[in-house]
Design a protein that fits this description.
This protein is an alpha/beta fold and 305 residues long. Helices cover 47% and strands 10% of the residues. Strands 1-3-2-4-5 form a five-stranded mixed beta sheet, sandwiched between helices. Helix 8 runs antiparallel to helix 9, helix 10 packs antiparallel against helix 11 and helix 10 packs parallel to helix 12.
Length: 305
């Protein structure tokens, strides 16, 4: 599961090329972060702000979670439980292709780390909490062997005003988050469905259910197997739905939409219903205002009517 390099990190890929792009304007909808303030252990990063991550990694190991558009980080609570010995940079792989390329990420979610400016590949997907903690413990040992053993203060820094307490998370949402962190996608799906049974207008539960359902469908499948099956059976709706899932997980929304809409045109009514339902899930994952969603929704409507 892990791909930890030798203790001295020699031979690791140099990420310094990303520093040259730090002055470029950020692209995409995610809020920009950078090195965390004294009150933050989890933050967003991008191609444009990654220089601060590299600098921070000389003092404390930085876990880098690369996710697809619309997906939420699953590792924040675990990282925060280490009390500042680790920090987490969350990266939208579709918005920051240079970071994804530097870590040689071909599918998401993927988790890596940076220690003393050097990359450390950790795992693809989100395994169980116990496995994640085992990997993070190994990461801390590796960092210490390379002289990176600092910490980031957990609370608000001196002279700072602490952030107001966030609104409490609804119990069923928290149950789903905990299940996702533990890698138990069926339990998360059940929690979101229960939340929707109580409140069908709970849009956060709708989006969360779409996201975790996507992750669950990809569990146990490899990108090579999925793409080979789709290429061998271009008229097989199941195979095309699988590869569309893979495309969405990697941030390639336009490819997924185009693929399914092409299949939709010649599909039976039953298969059309399945394709339409899957696309509606993707719309929830990406967000209604995403221009790729707007375009795909328009094309779908033209095929339906």
């Amino acid at each position: 599961m892990t791909d930890l390099p030798p203790a001295n990190l020699r031979g690791a890929v140099d990420l310094s090329g990303l520093v040259r792009r730090a002055a470029e304007p950020a692209r995409g909808p995610r809020p920009e972060g950078g090195a965390p303030a004294a009150s933050s252990l989890v933050f967003d990063s991008s191609d444009a702000t990654f220089e601060s991550v590299l600098e921070l990694s000389t003092r404390v190991p930085v876990v880098v979670e690369i996710i697809a558009p619309g997906l939420n980080s699953a590792l924040g609570p675990i990282v925060e439980s280490y009390g500042g010995r680790l920090v987490l940079a969350v990266v939208d792989g579709s918005v920051s292709p240079q970071i994804a390329q530097a870590f040689q990420v071909r599918e998401v979610p993927a988790v890596a780390a940076v220690v003393a400016g050097r990359p450390v590949n950790l795992f693809i997907g989100i395994p169980s909490e116990q496995e994640v903690r085992q990997v993070f413990d190994e990461l801390l040992q590796l960092a210490a062997q390379n002289g990176v053993n600092g910490t980031v203060p957990v609370g608000a820094g001196e002279g700072e005003t602490a952030e107001p307490e966030p609104e409490p998370v609804p119990p069923l949402h928290q149950e789903a988050y905990d299940a996702i962190t533990a890698g138990d996608y069926p339990a998360a799906i059940a929690a979101y469905r229960k939340a929707l049974a109580e409140n069908p207008r709970d849009q956060e539960a709708v989006a969360g259910l779409a996201q975790v359902s996507l992750l669950h469908r990809l569990t146990g499948k490899t990108a090579v197997e999925i793409r080979d099956a789709a290429a061998a059976r271009p008229a097989d709706v199941d195979a095309q739905l699988d590869v569309a899932d893979l495309d969405v997980s990697g941030g390639h929304l336009e490819d997924a939409f185009s693929r399914l809409l092409d299949v939709f045109a010649g599909a039976s009514q039953e298969d059309r219903d399945r394709i339409r339902a899957r696309m509606l899930e993707y719309f929830e994952v990406a967000g209604a205002e995403d221009p790729r969603v707007v375009a795909a929704r328009g094309r779908l409507a033209s095929l339906l009517y």
